[in-house]
Amino acid sequence: MTVRARRSVLYMPGSNARALEKALAAAQKTGNLRREGSALGSLGLLYKELGEQEMALEYLEKAIAIFRHTRDLSDEAALLFISSLVYRDLGLSQKALEISSQALVTISESGERDGIATIFNALRNLHAKLGNKRLAIFYGKQSVNTYQELRGL
To answer: What single DSSP character describes residue 112?
Structure first.
């Protein structure tokens, strides 16, 4: 499952904070860490979509900690990737780059090649924005090569 596809698993458009807070409370009450992480991640994504970046980061960081604790590498990487987008939106490109690099390491550990390609592409974009042309080209090539591997080309 790609990093992008995970986004739809964690957050359903049209969700509201009240429903997600109820889901979070229920998960915490039953001790279901997977659902707690998903609810926190969904709240983070909701606040990102609403433009409340600082609130988004608070929820995303809590969710990432849970997925790291439970060794759910795919969801951890997906939320690291989303966090990097929040930092990018805040104009903190260097921090976005750092978090994207963490996401790449994590998704690489999971072996999800499509997620790796997505993060290579995000790193290409960030390096291009920062004026790091050689690194932008490098990550762009890595992304293309990985996508070609996935397609058997």
So the answer is: -
Tens digit of each residue's pLDDT (9 = 90 or more) over 81-135: 999 999 999 999 999 999 999 999 999 999 888 899 999 999 999 999 889 999 9
Record the tokens describing residue 56, joined without a space: 């988004």
Residue 83: per-residue pLDDT: 96
* Residue from 108, 17, 109, 24 nearest 66 by CA: 24
If one counts every other C-beta atom within 10 angstroms of the C-beta of residue 144, the result is 15
Helix 17-30 × helix 33-49 angle, to 10°: 160
Q: Tell whether the torsion through CA atoms of 90, 93, 94 and 100 is positive or negative.
A: positive
Written as six digits, the tokens of 91 are 């104009």
**Pairwise pLDDT comparison (84 vs 11), residue with the higher score:** 84
CA distance 53 to 131: 25
Contact 78, 6 (CB under 8 A): yes
- Asked if residues 86 and 116 have their Cβ atoms less than 8 Å apart, the reply is no
